[in-house]
Amino acid sequence: MASPSTAPREFALFTQAAPNGSINNEALKTILAEYGSAPAPEGAVDFAAVAPALKKEQTHHPEGDGNCLGFAALDSKVCCDLHQIKNEWFNSKYPMVPGHEIVGIVTEVGDRAGIGCMIDSCQQCEQCKEHLEQHCSGGGSISTYNATYPDGTLTQGGYSTHYVVSKKFALHVPNNLPLDAAAPLLCAGITVYSPLKYFELDKPGLKVGVVGLGGLGHMAVKFLKAFGCEVTVISTSVSKKEEAIKHLGADHFVISKSEEEMKAAANSLHGIVDTVSVKHDLAHYLSLLRPANGKYVVVGIPSEPYELHSSALIFKRAIVGGSLIGGIKETQEMLDFCGEHNITCDIEKVPIDYVNTAMERLAKNDVHYRFVIDIAGSLVYDYSK
User: Fold this and answer.
1) What is d(CA 110, CA 75) in angstroms, rounded to the nearest whole number?
2) H/E/C letters for each residue in the chain?
3) Which of 224, 350, 354, 359 could bond to 229 as cystine, CB 3.0-4.6 Å?
């Protein structure tokens, strides 16, 4: 019987055309329209040989010591990878295989699965027991890539055909969400969902601002609207106003470079989520918070430190906080919420051989809003060569 390791191209395509072991004609038509058809190349495996791998009865919860899921990676998202590749956070380890938002099909089972920013933690410390694995104090969580296993081996990420992960760190992707547009939820989505929940900026009727309308910012807007909040997008770019209001449903748009607009919006917001990853003046935006108990949450990581005078906080009794990602339990909660509200990320899907160009465009903010690498499609034989 064929297996994903011996026939990755056929397996990846089969999981799209026949997710339950029998051909879905509409899915097959879509694949043929996108990739074309031609005689099979020498050595190709017939789909019939791949089908039993999906029908083989196994479980996510094996007995004994087995605790791993192996799955074929269909899509992986590009974002923070650029910072790590260029060592802009000064912690890069080489050789490096990036990719920390991975979705795919569990081998020999067929379930839709995802891996986020971490793949392990000590599981014993106070933070891990409270489902805050991202803040593991027993040695730290192990990142999906650019980290080290206890035996010294470097972790390698999702720009791969397959990935093996502990079942404790595998996530279920709701069936109604397209895998490619769901991939960025595993970082961008949870990065903004977690602080909105923790800082209680998820209550209907709250007036919440979002600084920056990029990959993180547009997800923050989507979540806030689903929570029932009144949303104000704050941006330096007037060109993003139509996108914010008409496409994402934001209620207000403020140009942060406009003294008049910033003055008109002063003291109006219960909270702000700052998604910008370049250095900027926090006090300028703190002026938008309501006096007493306003919350300003930072999720972007500039390469230079912020400078903030204490008076900007004291006279408003403002709270400034930060947030990383969420734990596994909260990440699954976020995915389920997205499934209930049909929330996905706006993406541009690219083949693996486009990744260098994607990185160059990403450095110029030339993406709407996230690149997703089509791993499965990149395994398709190129009949033009």
Assistant:
1) 15
2) CCCCCCCHHHHHHHHHHCCCCCCCHHHHHHHHHHHCCCCCCCCCCCHHHHHHHHHCCCCCCCCCCCCEEEEEEEEEEECCHHHHHCCCCCCCCCCCCCCCCEEEEECCCCCEEEECCEEECCCCCHHHHCCCHHHCCCCCCEECCCCECCCCCECCCCCCCEEEEEHHHCEECCCCCCHHHHHHHHCHHHHHHHHHHHCCCCCCCCEEEEECCCHHHHHHHHHHHHHCCEEEEEECCHHHHHHHHHHCCCCEEEECCCHHHHHHCCCCECEEEECCCCCCCHHHHHCCECCCCCEEEECCCCCCCCCCCCHHHHCCCCEEEECCCCCHHHHHHHHHHHHHHCCCCCEEEECHHHHHHHHHHHHCCCCCCEEEEEHHHHCCCCCCC
3) 224
Neighbouring CB atoms inside 10 A of 184's CB total 28
Structure-token pair, residue 258: 């406009």
More confident residue, 289 or 373: 289
Residue 40: which pLDDT band, with cuts at 50, 70 and 90? Answer: low
Cβ–Cβ under 8 Å, residues 147 and 155: yes
Alpha carbon distance 59, 68 (integer Å): 11
pTM of the model as a whole: 0.79
Cα separation, 161 vs 72, whole angstroms: 6
Give the C-alpha separation, 70 to 81, whole Å: 23
Partners of 48 in the β-ladder: none
pLDDT (average), residues 286-290: 97
Q: What is the rounded distance in angstroms from the CA atom of residue 119 to the CA atom of residue 169?
A: 5
Strands 102-106 and 230-235, how do they pair? unpaired
Nearest CA among 1, 17, 12 for reference residue 56: 1
Q: Yes or no: say if 370 and 215 are a contact pair by the CB < 8 Å rule.
A: yes
Range from 29-38, 85-94, 119-128, 312-321 carrying the lowest mean pLDDT: 29-38
d(CA 284, CA 288): 8
- The dihedrals phi and psi of 208, each to the nearest 5 degrees, come to -125, 135
Confidence of residue 160 (pLDDT cuts 50, 70, 90): confident
Residue that is written with structure tokens 């650029």 in the block:
82
- Least confident piece of the model among 34-38, 175-179, 362-366: 34-38
